[in-house]
Structure to design on (241 residues):
């Protein structure tokens, strides 16, 4: 009888012990992974920050939600990096992790003559916040004006020649602090191509094919403390060599 009761006790103990879970993990132990692929794209009136929304925590488990993103913004004069001001923004996230891959935020509060550095973290809830992303930086000035006098000529031997007037002033009609560069965009039925920036206000395109229509536009770029600040592109002009 005693043996039967002992065996029954072991069986019940084994059943109740199965599936027993350990103590719950603290929020910081299941915090989200940091956002990935953090990028900054500059436009004439704003900087667009974007990054991949994390879908797993640091243990590799799927996240059920992200509550918000924290953006740290550092600003300092381009000529004196020691005078740094720090601002932190908390941006609510109301989307669904299953439907959105990237998060976008546009910062229009930019001052000429300053440099900006950003980093981002993801917030799941109280005491559950990811590590920071690596920082991204750029310097800002008033963008250059759109090039005027943009013309295109087709030449023998399947060549296209582009010219425009040099840009010397910014969008506020003040003199630029330096000589701009120019980036050529070319669109055809086959592809869209972006050529590397050039310092001249003329461009020979020797890579065209006869009978194909090519449409061009020119984007001014102001080099400023390691950043190429874009202005507005010219309207497209098309040619068929």
């Amino acid at each position: 009888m005693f043996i039967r009761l002992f065996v029954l006790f072991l069986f019940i103990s084994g059943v109740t012990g199965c599936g027993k879970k350990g103590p719950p993990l603290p929020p910081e132990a299941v915090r989200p992974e940091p956002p990935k692929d953090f990028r900054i794209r500059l436009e004439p009136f704003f900087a667009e920050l974007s990054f991949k929304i994390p879908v797993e925590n640091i243990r590799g488990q799927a996240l059920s939600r992200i509550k918000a993103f924290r953006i740290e913004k550092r600003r300092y004069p381009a000529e004196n990096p020691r005078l740094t001001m720090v601002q932190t923004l908390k941006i609510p996230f109301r989307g669904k992790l299953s439907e959105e891959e990237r998060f976008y935020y546009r910062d229009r509060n930019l001052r000429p003559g300053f440099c900006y550095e950003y980093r981002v973290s993801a917030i799941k809830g109280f005491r559950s916040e990811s590590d920071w992303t690596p920082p991204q930086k750029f310097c800002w000035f008033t963008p250059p004006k759109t090039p005027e006098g943009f013309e295109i000529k087709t030449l023998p031997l399947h060549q296209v020649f582009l010219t425009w007037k040099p840009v010397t002033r910014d969008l506020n009609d003040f003199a630029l602090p330096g000589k701009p560069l120019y980036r050529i965009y070319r669109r055809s039925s086959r592809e869209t191509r972006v050529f590397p920036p050039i310092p001249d206000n003329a461009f020979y395109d020797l890579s065209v094919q006869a009978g194909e229509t090519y449409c061009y536009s020119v984007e001014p770029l102001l080099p400023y403390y390691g950043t190429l600040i874009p202005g507005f592109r010219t309207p497209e002009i098309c040619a068929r060599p």
Q: What stands out?
A: The domain at 27-140 is CATH 2.60.40.10 (Immunoglobulin-like). Residues 5-19 have pLDDT under 50 and may be disordered. The CA atoms of residues 79 and 113 lie 8 Å apart.
